[in-house]
Design brief:
The protein is mainly α and about 200 residues long. It has a domain of about 110 residues: Orthogonal Bundle (Rna Polymerase Sigma Factor, Chain: A), CATH 1.10.1740. It contains 9 helices and no strands. About 10% of the residues are buried.
């Protein structure tokens, strides 16, 4: 026959020390249990997402049919979902902008939604694209810097204003314009007024 079948293996070379084998089996069983416990919430989340997606699909189909109440409810639920979605991914002010952009995109593209397709992936794609857009915008603006002379002129003005405030000599711009000294400099000489010209 085949020469492989004739050979026998000595399993003692592959065996673990007596205590290590049992510990390895326990560890592998506990790892399986941990993975199973982690998989349970993921399965639950997946099921919740599927149900939510189906509910939103029905609301969108009704909205496309002209039911304004269904559309209002859909937008309220999407607003809450988008608030959580961006709240975990972006800083607060940016998250608010992204949420509003996503709601606007959903509103403007609602006619493009095909009722026979799942709604969840459609709305998640819009949310993801808006998230990426805001990350790109943030990276563009982060690389911009102000010229040094602008910063130096602003620092100088700020220090001068602080020194004036500390000395008590600060005068508001409207008060400075209405001060007697300012009025003398900008007024027409009295002789010109008396001559009528």
């Amino acid at each position: 026959m085949n020469s492989l079948h004739d050979k026998t293996f000595d399993t003692s070379t592959f065996a673990l020390p007596s205590g290590a084998g049992i510990a390895a089996k326990r560890r592998s069983a506990s790892d399986f249990g941990v993975r199973r416990r982690r998989a349970a919430p993921a399965t639950l989340q997946s099921e919740n997402w599927r149900r939510r997606s189906e509910k939103w699909r029905h609301l969108m189909v009704a909205a496309q049919g002209g039911e304004s109440r269904a559309y209002d409810q859909l937008l309220r639920e999407l607003d809450a979902w988008l608030r959580r979605y961006y709240g975990r991914r972006l800083p607060s002010p940016v998250a608010e902008d992204a949420r509003q952009d996503a709601l606007l995109a959903i509103h403007t593209k609602r006619h493009a939604y095909t009722p026979s397709k799942p709604f969840g992936p459609w709305v998640a794609a819009i949310a993801r694209y808006k998230w990426i857009d805001h990350i790109r915008d943030a990276s563009r603006f982060a690389s911009l810097s102000l010229p040094d002379e602008i910063m130096t002129v602003n620092i100088h003005r700020g220090l001068k204003k602080l020194a004036a405030l500390a000395a008590g000599d600060a005068v508001t711009p409207t008060a400075a314009a209405n001060s007697p000294k300012s009025l003398k400099e900008h007024s027409v000489p009295s002789a010109a007024w008396s001559r009528g010209g």
